[in-house]
Design a protein that fits this description.
By secondary structure, the protein is of the alpha/beta class. The protein has a single domain, classed as 3-Layer(aba) Sandwich (Rossmann fold), CATH 3.40.50. It is built from eight helices and six strands; from the N terminus they run βαβααββααβαβαα. Strands 3-2-1-4-5-6 form a six-stranded parallel beta sheet, with helices on both faces. Helix 1 packs across helix 7.
Length: 197
């Protein structure tokens, strides 16, 4: 593949910011991908508290382009802009609901809506537990519209030895849902057989 594929990574304010960081790291390692990054204001705080004060600057350096959360006129807000797909990781319930019900008041939600209308893949790593009926209905709504709801659950059958391995597995699984080549499976990296139930 000679041309780089645009991939949007949105990071919202739910806990689990390290997963979004690892997804950007993995995609940045892939010569076929150009990461377009959108980080919500709440996510900026979560990144600082959960990953470290320099996390946002590092993400901006890794990304092909960083777009402001309020810049609804950015290139990725247009369906004519070539994008492979989008991952929101972590995806807060507020962001899930906004995507589900078309509340397009910021770039992260607008870019996600564009993926749905253009029939591109949109992967939402919804980070909430326990769930009430409103959460479940919002998940149903986005699923019926075409999104993939993929809660960031660890694959215990891979027998991870650290939290970093759990995060890496979840990140790789999310990227694989976009059907992007050249992403190493974490089981190969860990040298563990992936024999699930």
């Amino acid at each position: 593949m000679s041309e780089r594929q645009g991939v949007i990574v949105g990071i919202s304010g739910a806990s689990g910011a390290a997963i979004g960081v690892r997804i950007v790291e993995r995609l940045a390692e892939n010569p076929c991908c150009a990461v377009h990054l959108v980080v919500s204001p709440a996510a900026e705080r979560t990144l600082s508290e959960e990953v470290g004060s320099g996390a946002l600057l590092r993400l901006r350096d890794l990304a092909f382009r960083h777009h402001g959360h309020s810049d609804i006129g950015a290139s990725i807000a247009s369906g004519s802009f070539p994008i492979r797909g989008m991952i929101v990781a972590p995806c807060s319930v507020r962001t899930l609901s906004a995507i589900a019900y078309g509340q397009l008041d910021n770039l992260l939600v607008r870019a996600a809506d564009v993926q749905l209308k253009e029939r591109r893949r949109l992967v939402l790593l919804v980070r909430e537990s326990p769930l009430h009926l409103g959460h479940i209905r919002a998940m149903q709504q986005v699923t019926e519209t075409g999104a993939i709801v993929a809660p960031p659950l660890p694959a215990f059958y891979l027998k991870p030895q650290s939290l970093a391995e759990v995060v890496d597995q979840i990140a790789c699984r999310a990227i694989n849902l976009l059907d992007i080549a050249n992403v190493s499976a974490p089981a190969q990296a860990w040298g563990t057989a992936a024999t699930g139930p």
